[in-house]
Specification:
single chain, mainly alpha, Hydantoin permease, 22 helices
């Protein structure tokens, strides 16, 4: 079967979902009001609350929620076969992710741009809010640590991409100044910036002197550096420090100075990247060599598929972005459909092409099976296989393989860095919120909260594990990411459902995906906590077991409280809407 057919079917499903289903949700369920004064106007401060053009905001929203997750998850999940992965991406995007991202955005806009954690207090009570914030805090900490891990390792593996990524920063600052101080247009400058970035990537692919290869700088593979670290570990350490200094600055700057223009550039990277891959698919017409379903898999896809592919189908982190940064920049409420739902469609398209790149990369089914011989092997190989497979598709347009791999890595790093910036900013908000909750005044200060966020993220990322030293600790809590992320999405959908019920509206479009998601996620998490990580089993892990058990208890507590609110027994105030 040709990979083109997957792209055609997927594109049709996404088009119909946005054209018809999102319109139904906007008009009949969320009832968007063009005359409603959004928080971006009501609380305009030039830092976080900034009315923003919908195309620019879509770029910020999409690139903040995308990152590397809609690539990594699908690239791993094809282990169970391409059909389950494709179905979950398509149906999950249309009926779950779009409704979730769109809904959390509208709910926040209707309530002063407040985060989903704060809204939990209004909808289901103060105790539930604190428990919810704990789950959110753990989730963003994992996002920070793992995305920093991904970026640092891509810099090490593809040193030709570093120059292009760092050139983007001053270009974005220049665009931000030009647009917001001189009232210029962002489209042309961002296209020029993208051209400069790709030119730098192409030149660096051929000129070793422009490749910032820290491993080579520290003596090459096997060399020993300071404190007995090998060259790779030392390079990883330096990149993490550089990244953390960068995200500290980026997450405290006004959004118009770096966040918005850089994300707008990255939104064009999405268009260019997807264009290259889908056009490459059309010209190469590769055959799918991966199995439709993998009957010999060592783990069952049911229910693990639904936590392996989070971003690209539905992700709780998206609700944090929608209610944390996007809602504070929405210019007109009617644009929430374009930004929220279409942002999910963009991520679904990225997840779909990631699947296609992987399942068409291998010449034979036997080679796919050899690489994806087990779930652990699939987890280790996924991202690398995608970059090679995407490079193979792009080479169908005449782009040399080394250049194609560099450009793909630039795109992945750019998306991951955007998510890292937004995640650290969100973590700062949460820490400040907890500081206000428990009257710890220093934590409410921007730079104190940001310092706590950055230091804790760096500490988790740099925890040494095993003989390799730095570079593996970032994954210590990663097995919890999928379940925590999906639990957060389920709880967010539940909050939107409670809000809709109190408005006297039909909440079936939000409650049905919520029930499905919570059932699958709780099932998967119970299996992991009690049959994989528990101390009485082989392969036990005290850290994962402890955190997992706490999250499970908190989740059931929140669900019981929310069930009471949904049945009308909880009457905490929430803003009414027309």
């Amino acid at each position: 079967m040709s990979g083109i057919w997957l792209a055609v079917v997927g594109g049709l499903v996404f088009f119909l979902g946005y054209r018809y289903y999102s319109k139904f949700i906007a008009e009949k369920i969320y009832r968007l009001d063009p005359n409603y004064v959004t928080p971006a106007h009501k609380y305009k401060d030039g830092v976080d609350f900034v009315p923003t053009n919908k195309f620019v905001l879509w770029g910020h929203h999409f690139t903040s929620v995308a990152g590397a997750a809609p690539i990594v998850g699908p690239a791993i999940a094809v282990y169970w076969g391409w059909l389950p992965a494709v179905l979950w991406v398509l149906l999950g995007t249309v009926f779950a992710a779009g409704v979730h991202d769109f809904g959390t955005l509208v709910l926040s806009v209707r309530n002063k741009g407040q985060s989903i954690g704060t809204l939990a207090s209004k909808l289901i009570g103060q105790k539930a809010k604190v428990l919810f914030l704990f789950i959110i805090l753990l989730l963003v900490l994992m996002v920070n640590a793992v995305f920093a891990w991904v970026i640092a390792n891509l810099f090490i593996s593809f040193p030709a991409s570093v120059l292009s990524v760092f050139i983007q920063i001053p270009l974005a600052v220049w665009i931000g100044y030009s647009v917001y101080k001189k009232q210029g247009n962002m489209l042309l400058p961002s296209i020029v910036a993208l051209a400069v970035m790709y030119l730098a990537a192409i030149v660096a692919s051929y000129v070793p002197a422009l490749q910032i290869d820290l491993v080579r700088y520290f003596g090459g593979e096997g060399a020993t550096t300071l404190f007995g670290l090998n060259a790779t570990s030392m390079a990883f350490f330096v990149w993490i420090v550089v990244l953390m200094v960068y995200v500290y600055i980026a997450s405290t700057l006004p959004v118009w100075k770096l966040l918005q223009p850089r994300d707008y550039i990255n939104s064009h990277q999405l268009i260019v990247g997807l264009g290259l891959l889908y056009l490459g698919l059309l010209f190469t017409n590769p055959e799918i060599t991966a199995p439709v379903t993998n009957a010999s898999a060592d783990t069952s896809w049911f229910p693990l598929l639904f936590i392996t592919i989070a971003c690209g189908a539905i992700s709780g982190f998206h609700g944090l972005v929608s209610s944390g940064t996007t809602s504070k920049q929405l210019n007109n409420e009617t644009e929430a459909r374009f930004v929220g739902y279409l942002g999910s469609v963009g991520e679904g398209a990225l997840a779909l092409v990631a699947i296609i790149a992987v399942v068409t990369f291998f010449p034979t089914a036997g080679e796919f099976t050899a690489t994806y011989s087990g779930f652990a092997e699939a987890s280790n190989a996924g991202l690398g296989v995608f970059i090679q497979g995407a490079g193979q598709l792009a080479s169908g347009l005449g782009i040399p393989a080394s250049v194609a791999a560099t450009i793909v890595s630039v795109i992945v790093v750019s998306f991951a860095a955007t998510t890292l910036d937004s995640s650290v900013r969100l973590m700062r908000y949460i820490i400040a919120e907890l500081g206000m909750e428990y009257k710890v005044t220093p934590l409410t200060k921007t730079h104190v909260a940001t310092t706590v966020a950055v230091v804790s993220s760096a500490a988790l990322t740099l925890i040494p594990q095993g003989p390799k030293g730095f570079g593996s600790g970032g994954y210590l809590l990663w097995p919890l990411f999928g379940t925590s992320n999906q639990l957060l999405a389920g709880i967010s959908l539940l909050l939107v459902s409670i809000w809709l019920k109190r408005q006297g509206r039909n909440y079936m479009p939000t409650i049905i995906p919520m029930v499905f998601l919570m059932f699958m996620t709780l099932w998967a998490m119970i299996v992991q906590v009690w049959t994989e990580w528990a101390p009485w089993n082989d392969g036990s892990d005290w850290m994962l077991f402890s955190f997992g058990a706490i999250i499970l208890v908190f989740t059931f507590w929140i669900l019981l409280t929310a069930a009471s609110a949904l049945t009308g027994k909880n009457n905490d105030s929430i803003e009414k809407s027309a």
